[in-house]
Structure formats: structure tokens, C-alpha cells
Specification:
mainly beta; 18 strands; OB fold (Dihydrolipoamide Acetyltransferase, E2P); CvfB_S1_st; five-stranded antiparallel β-sheet; CvfB_WH; 3 helices; elongated; NA-bd_OB-fold; GntR family transcriptional regulator; 4 domains
């Protein structure tokens, strides 16, 4: 079965003027236009292609890689808006349609939006939606504390960065736990720091607790070496200075230098830390 909105591994059946005809084991066929055919191929070869609908709503194959696939989220640029809805650049020739009813707020040409790709049951067309809350839910969480997860940052507020976790759940990175420049649309590895009673999920970008001591210690060690063996930072340094200079909280920094001091790799002085 050939699946719309997904990557399919198909067989090359024959070459024609329009391109290569591909098929599956069930006898389904579709066209891969000449401009996407591989340089070297033989009839019978397997090929991985993405399948979507062309301008005449016919399934067609491409070797281009879209910015999102079926039932996933992407950060897309709005190329056009007309009386029917918005059209998003998703990396393919035909743009992705987002009808007005699927827009969380009216889309504007030139802006960027988090969009979910789904298959419309009534029309069998691939459609986008910026009403992302419909497609994420924390009702049945399958997460654990300290678990590493993949996130997409959806928007940043006074509290922090809101994110979609593993394409399924909602989470938040509090502002005080952000020590690097992150923006809407960023895809990052994060860690579950807390799961609250109401199933809200707190995230951090560094392994939480004791798990972060060694990586941070290694980072501080590398920075020390790069600085020639001395950094004018210590456990009395202002937290904002540590955040700006090292990209971590003062608490994480103190754990890191404590670990290095215990291992006798540094000396902690009144004016900074020094390599042994």
C-alpha cells in the first residue's frame, strides 16, 4: 500500500517520457518525474520516495525531502494567502494548504508558523493546521523523570519556552533554566525534570540533577584549557555573569567546579579557578 504524506520504499517498474513509474507489491503505481530520477538505476531497483498529491490531486513521488511528514509538526513559512486559506512552503513544489478553519489565528504572508500535517478523511488530501493543541495531549503521559526527549519549541512567553515533546505532549522550559539562545521552531534534545500532579511537564536542556555534573565539569575543563588555565569565575561570582560567560546556572557551575576540585583537577582561588 502506498501511503500519502510518508516515505515509501517502492520498485522501479519502467521508464517513460514523463518519468519513472514506481510500484508496490500490491500492484499500485505512481509517477516519479524525470527531474527526480536517480543518475543510475535499473528496472526492479528499490527507491525511497516521498508521496503527496500533485496539482491535479494525483499521488506523485518525489526524492525531495519535505520539512514535515504525516502526523508530525514543522515550522513553515507562509508563502501566500488567498480567499481559500494560506499556503505554506514545506520543501516541495506544491505548497501545503492550511484552510482558514485550521488557523489558530489568521495567517499572514511572510510569517512563520508551527504547522501539523494531517490527512483529511473527507477529501483524502494532505492538509496543514496551526491549531496544534488539537494534536498534543498530556492525558496519557508515557514519560519518566530524567528521560531524554526530542522537542520542538512552539512559542516563548514570560514564563519560558513552550515545547512539543516527542511530537505528542506539551512541556515548558522555565526561563531561569534557559542558558542558551533558543527560538520558535528549534528542534532540541531536552530532559524531563518534573512531572506535576496535573500532568504538566517541566523540561530542562541539560541533564537534571547529579546527571549533569560530569558533562558540565567537562565543559568547564575545556573552557579553562581554552582560556590558558585560568577563569575569573568562582562560587561567589554573580549568577548573571556565570550565565553569560558559561551558559549555565550558578548552581550547575558550582556543582561542576566542586566535582573538578574533588578530582584535584582545579584550584579554587579568591579571584577564580585554575587548572592544576
Amino acid at each position: 500500500m502506498i501511503k500519502l504524506g510518508e516515505y515509501n520504499t517502492l520498485y522501479i517498474l519502467r521508464e517513460t517520457d514523463p518519468g519513472l513509474y514506481l510500484g508496490d507489491s500490491d500492484g499500485n503505481e505512481l509517477l516519479l518525474p524525470h527531474k527526480y530520477k536517480p543518475e543510475n538505476f535499473e528496472v526492479g531497483d528499490e527507491i525511497q520516495v516521498f508521496v503527496y498529491l500533485d496539482n491535479e490531486e494525483r499521488p506523485i513521488a518525489t526524492t525531495l525531502e519535505p520539512y514535515l511528514t504525516l502526523n508530525t509538526f514543522g515550522y513553515l513559512h507562509c508563502s501566500d494567502v488567498n480567499k481559500y486559506g494560506a499556503f505554506m512552503d514545506w520543501g516541495l513544489e506544491k505548497q501545503l494548504f492550511v484552510p482558514f478553519k485550521e488557523q489558530a489565528r489568521p495567517m499572514k504572508q511572510g510569517n512563520w508558523y508551527i504547522v501539523y500535517l494531517y490527512l483529511d478523511d473527507k477529501t483524502n488530501r494532505l492538509v496543514g493546521s496551526s491549531k496544534t493543541n488539537k494534536y498534543v495531549s498530556n492525558d496519557n503521559l508515557d514519560l519518566e523523570k530524567f528521560q531524554a526527549v526530542e522537542i520542538m519549541v512552539t512559542h516563548i512567553t514570560e514564563k519560558g519556552a513552550n515545547a512539543i515533546i516527542n511530537g505528542k505532549y506539551k512541556g515548558l522550559i522555565y526561563l531561569e533554566d534557559i542558558f542558551e539562545d533558543i527560538r520558535t521552531g528549534d528542534r532540541l534534545t531536552a530532559y524531563v525534570s518534573k512531572i506535576r500532579e496535573d500532568n504538566k511537564v517541566d523540561l530542562v536542556l541539560q541533564p537534571p540533577g547529579y546527571r549533569s555534573i560530569e558533562p558540565n565539569a567537562n565543559f568547564v575543563l575545556d573552557e579553562l584549557k581554552a582560556a590558558g588555565g585560568f577563569l575569573p569565575l568562582h562560587d561567589k561570582t554573580d549568577p548573571e555573569t556565570i550565565k553569560n560567560e558559561m551558559g549555565m546556572s550558578k548552581k550547575s557551575f558550582k556543582k561542576a567546579i566542586g566535582s573538578l576540585y574533588k578530582d584535584k583537577q582545579i584550584i579554587i582561588k579568591e579571584d577564580g579557578i585554575e587548572l592544576v
